[in-house]
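Quick start: load a record and inspect it. Here is Phosphomevalonate kinase:
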Amino acid sequence: PADLLSLQEHGLDFQRLLDASAYKEMYRQDMIRWGEEKRRADPGFFCRTAVEGAAQPVWVVSDTRRLSDVEWFRDVYGDVVQTVRVVATEETRKRRNWVFVDGVDDAESECGLDQGVAFDWVITNDGDELALGEQLEPLLRSLRGRL
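Running the structure step on this input writes:
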């Protein structure tokens, strides 16, 4: 929701913000700053926005960025929350055109969950489809068992 809300507030091109283009990088620090202002005023702002109007038996909320986001979901939904961390090696990320930007990629918005969260599931996505499937199958079985 942060990208959509920032788009609405600042007239940005949402489709161009979804890729790894120079366009996104040009606005990335401003979007982070805008998001931080919203969170300081209301720590649950983005979480509530993400679930607003949603009613399904299983939700997948991607791209939480901070411990406060995880805590919000756990406080509101309790033990049904399952946290999943997807990781990739730095080498894989570079092959996917990621380039570290000082002041952005080491900010809380990018690494706020690197410590302090005991994830229920950790999935490695380094491009091996078979290995990815083998990791996802137990997660999917677990989720189906909760329906």
